[in-house]
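Inverse folding, one chain.
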């Protein structure tokens, strides 16, 4: 550590800057012109950049060891930036002396200041865009269409001009903006590497959650990150020379401050109009497929795409929606349910049984649990999936593929769909409802069961503040929330408290009260990353996955070991429930596939279209099981589902009372068994985009009708 040869390059740069600073300091002291603290402060960007590069190289976190040119370029940029910082006082003093002469000389001096500022601003706009895009988008950056490039440059120009005026025409404002652009590009680099996704507007609302789960990743960088940093340092160099003329009296000070603030207000108004007035999707032609958002960020530029997604945050009202019309549609679906499956002998038997037994309901959203054996045809190596879970499916009351709308991250969105019955296909992508909306008035599963006399408990063995669960769970109607503080001393595996420890807590609750329980358990142990290499070798399967490099194959094996551990804990839990002398229904499902799913599907199915790959790389699995014979049910029933439908399905199987919205969902499922942001599934098992007429009249009608009823029963309550 700290002995890799590459570390010499940034260290040489630091030494040269130190030598340059010493030379200028001695020269100016000899001429009785001491350096000012502000001049030294302007050296910080280059120095900090080289210190960062030294640490990265010293810790062997630089992925392109053969690329020394990028590091040398950073040295040169830092030297230029330091030179501008050390020479700025001589230039500014010279301009101040010319100001004092007055007349034409003062005019020329002011013109020189304006010219320097315009040059610094222009270079900052161009180089700032490179600092934003190069770290993560070097492969597509120069293929972005001219209009989108212009749009991104215009947004950057507005931001930097605003900061320039807010900082009273000082270069520090421009430099701060450039620094923010690079930090954004660096953050996007890590998010793309770790999750295969772009930064979405709602990510800014959940920074605390992101920080809480980020400790398991390795933060290495490549040469493109260094190139982006070089551009940022270069952009900051001329900013050191940007400063207004000296103020002669307080009246001039007041005039300058007022004029700059007025200019800032005008720029801010124009910028706000540019970001909000045109519809970036409809008017400016920005495109997005939410199940593969990262390529669209790359093809169109970060800022235009980010703004377009931000504009899409409000829940869109369905075309032709009126409360009266939606209520009429809902009544038709309710009548269809009551006249059909709701009047069947099996439903009557289940209702009678539920009324007399009132079974407890345990819902387990298992972190990143997916059976890759059937999704990816054995991974090309004969993988047969989690053994006990596959066995459990044969006795499950309902089991199958679960059409989730997130991949690699976004646990809270699958959670939101399940607890509220609200499909993300209607809420929209790029949104985290837990962070965006008040859910106090939204109908929810815990609130519904509480009205039936159930005690309701949520548990998650991590920080209560993650995804704002400490606020969301009470808003949704949970009586109690057990967080990491309630699992002190619990055993851990991979990324957190074991699944088994949470199941022990579930059993403790079931044994401690005779009242019917609704327990929602969000597990943690399988959380990414899968490059931790913290699982004993004897627990790894040792597969070499076709098309994957050895390192990523190692990640897959680490993930599969996590699934095996979950499988063992699930088996022990089910065996305990089988001996428990009270009726319990278990709803078990995975929240999303692992973060390498996009790479895995491309490696194993390169000939499939992007849509086909999404259909394969998004779903997880679910099973509904009971420790007693549920009246009217047929074990081993296989059917596709969506997180938003899963609660309705479980309640129907159990014989519990159903709301009109749940009845509508169940009837709509007959034509549209699954729905996600990827698309919809028709009754024959085929997937289509939600706007694809090939889905057929029945499925499209169900999609449109459910959209109306969803807006009436759910979206109207989101605040």
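Residues assigned per position:
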């Amino acid at each position: 550590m700290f002995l890799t040869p590459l570390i010499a390059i940034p260290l040489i740069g630091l030494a040269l800057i130190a030598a340059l600073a010493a030379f200028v300091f001695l020269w100016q002291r000899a001429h009785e012109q001491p350096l000012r603290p502000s001049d030294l402060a302007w050296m910080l960007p280059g120095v900090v950049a080289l210190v960062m590069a030294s640490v990265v190289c010293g810790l062997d976190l630089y992925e392109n060891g053969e690329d020394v040119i990028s590091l040398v370029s950073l040295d040169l940029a830092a030297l230029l930036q330091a030179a501008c910082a050390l020479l700025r006082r001589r230039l500014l003093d010279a301009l101040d002396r010319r100001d004092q002469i007055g007349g034409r000389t003062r005019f020329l001096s002011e013109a020189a200041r304006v010219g320097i500022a315009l040059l610094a601003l222009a270079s900052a706009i161009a180089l700032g865009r490179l600092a934003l895009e190069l770290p993560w988008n070097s492969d597509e950056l120069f293929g972005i269409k001219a209009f989108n490039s212009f749009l991104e440059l215009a947004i950057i120009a507005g931001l930097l001009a605003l900061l320039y005026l807010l900082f009273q025409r000082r270069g520090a404002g421009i430099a701060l903006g450039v620094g923010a652009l690079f930090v954004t590009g660096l953050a996007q680099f890590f998010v793309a590497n770790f999750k295969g996704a772009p930064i979405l507007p709602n990510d800014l609302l959940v920074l605390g959650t992101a920080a809480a789960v980020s400790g398991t990743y390795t933060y290495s960088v490549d040469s493109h990150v260094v190139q982006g940093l070089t551009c940022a340092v270069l952009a900051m160099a001329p900013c050191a020379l940007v400063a207004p003329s000296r103020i002669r009296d307080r009246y001039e000070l007041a005039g300058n401050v007022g004029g700059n603030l007025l200019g800032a207000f005008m720029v801010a108004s124009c910028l706000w109009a540019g970001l909000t007035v045109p519809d970036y999707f409809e008017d400016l032609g920005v495109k997005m497929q939410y199940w593969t958002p990262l390529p669209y960020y790359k093809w169109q530029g970060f800022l235009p795409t980010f703004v377009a997604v931000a504009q899409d945050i409000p829940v869109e009202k369905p075309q032709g929606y009126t409360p009266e019309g939606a209520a009429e549609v809902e009544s038709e679906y309710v009548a269809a349910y009551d006249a059909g499956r709701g009047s069947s002998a099996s439903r009557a038997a289940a209702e009678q049984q539920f009324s007399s037994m009132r079974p407890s309901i345990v819902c387990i959203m298992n972190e990143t649990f997916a059976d890759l054996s059937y999704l990816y045809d054995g991974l090309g190596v004969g993988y047969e999936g989690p053994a006990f879970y596959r066995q459990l499916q044969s006795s499950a009351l309902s089991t199958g593929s679960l059409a989730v709308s997130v991949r690699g991250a976004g646990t809270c969105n699958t959670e939101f769909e399940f607890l509220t019955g609200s499909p993300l296909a209607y809420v929209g992508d790029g949104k985290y409802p837990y962070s965006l909306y008040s859910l106090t008035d939204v109908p929810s599963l815990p609130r519904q069961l509480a009205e039936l006399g159930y005690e309701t408990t949520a548990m998650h063995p991590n920080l209560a503040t993650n995804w704002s669960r400490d606020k969301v769970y009470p808003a949704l109607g949970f009586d109690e929330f057990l967080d990491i503080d309630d699992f002190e001393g619990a055993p851990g595996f991979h990324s957190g408290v074991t699944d088994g420890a949470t199941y022990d807590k579930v059993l403790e609750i079931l044994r401690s009260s005779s009242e019917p329980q609704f327990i929602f358990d969000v597990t943690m142990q399988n959380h990414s990353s899968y490059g931790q290499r913290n699982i004993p070798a004897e627990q790894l399967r040792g597969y070499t996955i076709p098309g994957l490099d050895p390192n990523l194959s190692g990640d897959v094996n680490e993930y599969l070991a996590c699934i095996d551990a979950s499988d063992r804990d699930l088996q022990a839990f089910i065996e305990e429930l089988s001996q428990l002398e009270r009726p319990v229904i278990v709803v078990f499902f995975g929240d999303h596939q692992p973060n390498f799913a996009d790479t895995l599907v491309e490696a194993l199915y390169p000939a499939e279209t992007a849509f086909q790959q999404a259909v394969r790389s998004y779903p997880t699995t679910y099973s509904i099981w009971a420790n007693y014979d549920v009246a009217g049910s047929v074990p081993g029933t296989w059917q596709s589902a969506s997180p938003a439908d899963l609660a309705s399905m479980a309640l129907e199987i159990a014989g519990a009372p159903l709301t009109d919205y749940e009845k509508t969902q169940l009837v709509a499922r007959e034509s549209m068994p699954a729905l996600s942001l990827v698309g919809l599934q028709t009754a024959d098992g085929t997937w289509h985009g939600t706007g694809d007429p090939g889905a057929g009249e029945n499925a499209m009608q169900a999609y449109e009708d459910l959209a109306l009823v969803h807006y009436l029963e759910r979206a109207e309550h989101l605040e």
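The first helix runs from residue 8 to 30. Residues 324-717 form a domain with the Alkaline Phosphatase, subunit A fold (CATH 3.40.720.10).
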